[in-house]
Write a structure and sequence with these properties.
The complex is a heterodimer of chains A (295) and B (254). Chain A is of the alpha/beta class and 295 residues long. Chain A has seven helices and 16 strands. Chain A is 23% helix and 27% strand. In chain A, strand 7 and strand 8 (117-123) form a beta hairpin. In chain A, helix 4 (194-204) packs parallel to helix 7. Chain B has 254 residues and is α/β, with parallel strands linked by helices. Chain B is 27% helix and 31% strand. Chain B has helices at residues 35-51, 68-75, 95-109, 129-137, 190-196, 242-253, and strands at residues 2-6, 9-11, 17-18, 24-25, 31-33, 54-61, 81-86, 114-117, 141-150, 154-160, 164-171, 174-178, 201-204, 217-223, 233-236. In chain B, strand 3 and strand 4 form a beta hairpin. In chain B, helix 2 (68-75) crosses helix 5 (190-196) and helix 3 (95-109) crosses helix 4. Chain B is globular, with a radius of gyration of 21 Å. Classes of the chains: A alpha/beta (295), B alpha/beta (254). At the A-B interface, helix 3, strand 5, strand 7, strand 8 and strand 11 of A face helix 3, helix 4, strand 9, strand 10 and strand 11 of B. Strand 16 of chain A pairs parallel with strand 15 of chain B. The complex binds flavin-adenine dinucleotide and adenosine monophosphate (AMP). The site of adenosine monophosphate has 26 residues of chain B, from helix 1, strand 6, helix 3 and helix 4.
């Protein structure tokens, strides 16, 4: 079997190529720039002309797919690749299974309704496209040659003009590496109130993350700080949810925590069913008291 | 100008129950609009108002999605007309099937210049139907939009990616999917809901659109995960010593 790996970033390229190696005797890897060598049997580089969106490489990737004719395509779940590779699959009438959480020879698992359930599904097309996030193949090792080829760019019929592009500042904290994680939720009434959460984090040695609404409806946190199905999937030692209701979409991101805590003013909040220790109380009332006792 | 917004109607996840055998029970779940499609509707309504465009909503799914409350919900948000296709062949439809049928609907509606989709559906969250619809139409597509603007001939989409921010301009007709932060859904007033009841709803059949494509994915089973066992020791701050007990538990893991 032959697998094509499409990834933008190095860590994903390594992990997907390693995962692919377990199923395929031939692994071909395609990327836009700065190819990682030694992880596949062949590496293909697609150079998109300056001033174009990367999605403009669609026709080039379509040619790679036709030339290589893989049975499986693994891709990194970035926004761009979801668009580019999804379109490639549709063009070929092929199945796409995004953000798989597990895979075996027969089928893959994806989350359904934000993690309320796991859906086991099978591709019924000759080529199957799957995206897998970090950690799906974490124990596998990639191997391969240093063969790098630059693919001839096929200009698209329609121009996707990039009028502006800017690199975002790097993330300040890496929640994926933190032992203890505190998540602030909508129960925080203002940005100032978050100071108590920061004090609490210092006291217990935790990093502060949040639920999705706090990066979206409010911009109190950078978007790389939200935990859950569409954000960070973590496995910390300790999780503390403060002012978090406990919706599945958030909780799947921390349900592997060793010990879980919650503070919420509503005794019926669903999070109390998903933690080891809970405290029913309003943040502005209980958090300062907890901080005082911990200091 | 005509803008079409793609809206998925599905069971409200708040009312989904997990049965003893870990299968899901939808019997108490009412239909609702997929959460982030509400943001897409709002972005589309704002753009339509600005560009003096007509706004239509397009949805497809099994017969169960067709209820008057959900129809009114969509039509009370600045949408002029709703086009729907309900067919039980679309139960568990995959992105390929959905994209093909939505593209056929858009072609049948006619004169659509811009299609706007949400960030991802609440059940599958595959972030695929937008681009797959675009591919079926042969139109360009950009996803993750956080701001949109159009001059009638092109659409410019600002988007935030994992490590970059960029702005892309493409010719119309085109498909754009938008991130939730693009716009906050409006709260429809009584008047909007009443007016929504009088707006046109056009129903298509799968036959007149050339039928539903064969599935590309087969669902084997859908089961709730085995929950992580938790102690569930809950203290009430109003009780004497509760905060101390909670702090003691925290100290255990510090
Ligand atoms: C497709 C999809 C993907 C999603 N992905 C994610 C994701 O990855 N991550 C994520 O987080 N969300 C995600 N969401 C959103 C998710 O469904 C929930 O809306 C969100 O997690 C809720 O955040 P919350 O708990 O902070 O807010 P709410 O649900 O509003 O809960 C706030 C809680 O705070 C409590 N509270 C209020 N005031 C106080 C106070 N003074 N003191 C103490 N407690 C108080 C309330 O009792 C309530 O329980 C997704 C949704 C969809 C549809
Ligand atoms: N059945 C549907 N009817 C109308 N629009 C849909 C449907 N399914 C998905 N969409 C649109 O496509 C987007 C992406 O969906 P998905 O690929 O399922 O995550 C959604 O946010 C909707 O805007």
């Amino acid at each position: 079997m032959k697998t094509l790996v499409i990834a933008e970033n190095e860590a994903a390229a390594r992990e997907l190529a390693a995962g692919a190696r377990a199923y395929a005797d031939e692994v071909v890897y395609a990327t836009f720039a700065d190819p990682v060598t030694g992880i596949a049997d062949k590496c293909l580089v697609v150079e998109v002309p300056e001033g174009q969106a990367k999605e403009a490489a669609f026709d080039t990737f379509a040619k790679i797919l036709a030339d290589e004719d893989p049975q499986m395509v693994f891709f990194e779940p970035t926004r761009r690749l979801k668009a580019l590779v999804g379109r490639l699959a549709a063009h070929n009438g092929a199945s796409v299974m995004t953000d798989i959480s597990a895979i075996d020879e027969e089928s893959v698992q994806t989350r359904y309704f934000g993690g309320i359930a796991e859906r086991t599904a099978k591709s019924v097309t000759p080529v199957a496209f799957c995206s897998a996030g970090a950690g799906t193949f974490k124990d596998a090792e990639p191997s391969g040659t240093d063969v790098v080829e630059t693919v001839e760019y096929v200009a698209p019929a329609v121009t996707l003009e990039c009028v502006e592009r800017e690199t975002l500042p790097p993330a300040e904290v890496d929640l994926t590496a933190a032992d203890k994680v505190v998540a602030a939720g909508r129960g925080f009434g203002s940005e100032e109130e978050l100071e108590e959460a920061r004090t609490f984090c210092k006291a217990i040695g935790a990093e502060l993350g949040c639920t999705r609404p706090l990066t979206e409806t409010e911009d109190w946190f950078p978007r790389e700080a939200y935990i859950g199905i569409s954000g960070l999937m973590l496995s910390p030692e300790v999780y503390v949810g403060i002012g978090v209701s406990g919706q599945m979409q958030h909780m799947v991101g921390v349900d592997r925590a060793h010990v879980a805590f919650a503070i919420n003013k509503d005794a019926h909040a669903p999070i109390f069913d998903k933690v080891d220790y809970g405290l029913v109380g309003a943040i502005n009332n209980v958090l300062p008291k907890i901080n005082a006792k911990l200091s | 100008m005509k803008i079409a917004v793609l809206v998925k109607i599905l069971p409200d996840d708040q009312d989904i129950q997990v049965k003893g055998d870990r299968t899901l029970d939808f019997s108490r779940a009412k239909s609702t609009v997929s959460t982030y499609d509400l943001n897409a509707i709002e972005a589309a309504a704002q753009l339509a108002a600005k560009a003096d465009a007509q706004l239509v909503a397009v949805t497809c799914g099994p017969k169960s999605i067709n209820d008057s409350k959900t129809r009114k919900n969509i039509l009370s948000r600045g949408v002029d007309e709703l086009y729907m296709l309900t067919d039980d062949g679309l139960e568990l439809a995959d992105a390929y099937q959905t994209g093909r049928i939505l593209a056929a609907m858009i072609q049948k509606i006619g004169d659509v210049d811009l299609v706007i989709a949400g960030d991802g559906s609440a059940d599958l969250y595959a972030q695929q139907v937008d681009v797959q619809t675009a591919e079926a139409l042969g139109w360009p597509a950009i996803n993750g939009g956080t701001a949109l603007d159009t001059d009638g001939a092109t659409v410019t989409v600002a988007r935030i990616l994992e490590t970059e921010r960029e702005s892309i301009r493409m010719p119309l007709p085109a498909v754009v999917s938008v991130a939730p932060e693009v716009a906050l859904p409006r709260i429809a007033g009584m008047k909007d809901v009443l007016a929504a009841g009088k707006k046109p709803v056009v129903e298509f059949t799968a036959e007149e659109l050339g039928g539903i494509a064969a599935p590309t994915v087969e669902t084997v089973e859908i089961l709730a995960p085995v929950p992580t066992p938790r102690k569930k020791q809950i203290f009430d701050a109003a009780d004497e010593g509760a905060i101390d007990a909670f702090v003691a538990a925290l100290r255990e893991v510090m």
